[in-house]
Amino acid sequence: MRVISDNYHAPLVRQTSLSIVVAVYNEQEVLAHFHNQLAAVLNTLSNIKSEIIYINDGSSDDTWDILKTLPASGFAIKLFNLSRNFGKEAAMTAGLDHANSDAIILLDADLQDPPELIPKMIASWQQGYDVVNMRRSQRHGESKLKKWTAHAFYRLLAFMSDDVVIEKDVGDFRLLSHNVVQQINKLPERNRYMKGLMAWPGFKQITLEFERPKRAAGKTKWNFIELVALGLSGITSFSIKPLKIATWLGVSISLAAFFYSAFLFLETLIFGNQVQGYPSLMLAQLWLGGVQLLAIGVLGEYIGRIYKESKGRPIYIIEESLQLSQEQINENK
Ligand code: UDP
Ligand code: MG
């Protein structure tokens, strides 16, 4: 009798699987249109078993109801309803936690990340790349201020980031291999700046360029202050350079103060005490005060983040999860 050991696997030709992860927040105007466009692309992929994972990030409009009626032909749909708006980073984290395919692609629901590029991304992955970054060579339909600040921010982040290369002008739109997603899902932090976390594991990367179209319908979900907060979170999550800069600023100011006081001492010794110098006194006072407050603020940013991490709260809460067949997905999170 032939004994087949436990770890014997008959060679089998397995179909490649693909998960598309889409975080949605108040996208009722564009959702059906987006879904049709994505479905059309998925149905052109031969030999790939695909699924779409929609995470409803606590929408207050009809997004969840629309999601439940989307047609699934030729692919599966999984729906997750978060218990409130946790933010895009948390919603994407929820999506990645539930994506178990060979390749995972993150898409925005507003068609600014064109689904037509999916075959190209898969082709790169099939050539052996674990991460396919999508760089925006141009951004259409966005204000000059947003374009300029985004451009400046990506460069500042690249300069600041301590040990990770965070690609410039690459948003969340990218393909990740199963391996990379497993690594990202292991990262425990609650401060989830995904552009950084997705770059953190490394692996073999390629960057493709595309022109980012304008939103197909609906409005952007970020105002300027929220974008600044996201940027700050990016920098503080991936760099302690602001702390170092504060230290160096302190050292240089102390040195300058030392030499200036030596000069003042000698000047008084030689020329006597002339009561003068109100402007320089005021200037030094104000400037020092400003720098000190700034340095305390920088410290505060980091302490705030440590405080948030230390509470160890979950990153998101799933209120309801559905398969298109309307069966409950076994939820063990
Ligand atoms: N989004 C989300 N939660 C939020 C904000 C946005 O899931 O709190 C989703 C949104 O539905 C969209 C994607 O994140 O699918 C990108 O949002 P948006 O288009 O507003 O960002 P922009 O392209 O303007 O940077
Ligand atoms: Mg958008």
From TrEMBL:
Membrane topology, record value: Multi-pass membrane protein
Transmembrane segments: 245-266, 286-304
Main location group: membrane
Name of this protein: Glycosyl transferase family 2
Keyword Cell membrane in annotation: yes
InterPro entries: Glyco_trans_2-like (IPR001173), Glycosyltransferase_2 (IPR050256), Nucleotide-diphossugar_trans (IPR029044)
Keywords, alphabetical: Cell membrane, Glycosyltransferase, Membrane, Transferase, Transmembrane, Transmembrane helix
Family: Belongs to the glycosyltransferase 2 family. GtrB subfamily.
GO molecular function: glycosyltransferase activity
Location in the cell: Cell membrane
Pfam short name (any one): Glycos_transf_2
Gene3D superfamilies reported in the protein's UniProt record: Spore Coat Polysaccharide Biosynthesis Protein SpsA, Chain A
Organism: Pseudoalteromonas piratica
Domain Glycosyltransferase 2-like span(s) in chain numbering: 19-181
Lineage: Bacteria, Pseudomonadati, Pseudomonadota, Gammaproteobacteria, Alteromonadales
GO cellular component: plasma membrane
